[in-house]
Amino acid sequence: MAVKKKIKTAKKKKVRLQETEGIAFIKATFNNTIITVTDMKGNVVAWSSAGKIGYKGSRKSTSYAAQQTAIDIVNTVTNMGLKSVHAKINGPGSGRNAAIRVFESQGLNVLSIEDTTPIPHNGCRPPKQRRI
User: Fold this and answer.
1) Full-model pTM
2) Which residues of 16-35 are buried (b: 16+ CB within 10 A; e: fewer)?
3) 59 — alpha (psi -120 to 50), left (phi > 0) or beta?
4) Phi, psi at residue 5, to the nearest 5°?
5) Which CATH superfamily is domain 27-105 in?
6) Which residue from 55, 59, 63 is spatially nearest to 101, judged by alpha carbons?
């Protein structure tokens, strides 16, 4: 019988970023908080969410879960060499403020905060009137 040889796959090295500045997109919904950090061109560097950390169900929507998510992403990104971040917040969830507070307390410099939550300004067209 032929013996199968295990092929060793090379581990990917953690890439050290050339830039020290990036953009943090915080999507805080009613059910979850998702944080994505990109470089200034928009290429994703790292991401994290409350579900990825291990929270399930209604615990994902808490501000504490958002704090833990932000701590996870800050640790990942600072090891790559990122020092400052532009924050773009989207959504009405409870993790909006908690995530930014963690960024600053963990030593990541927040340069600007922008709210990109979509706001309806006139709504959609109403249905035509009913004829009886």
Assistant:
1) 0.80
2) ebeeeebbbbbbbeeebbbb
3) alpha
4) -95, 140
5) Ribosomal protein S11/S14 (3.30.420.80)
6) 63
**Do the beta carbons of residue 125 and residue 61 sit within 8 Å?**
no
Which phi and psi (to 5°) does residue 38 adopt?
-120, 165
- Beta-bridge partners for 88: 25, 114
User: How many angstroms separate the CA atoms of 54 and 9, rounded?
Assistant: 28
pLDDT (tens digit, 9 = 90+) per residue, 79-126?
998 999 999 999 998 888 999 999 999 989 999 999 999 888 888 888
> For 70-86, how does the pLDDT look when each residue is reduced to its tens digit (9 = 90+)?
999 999 999 998 999 99
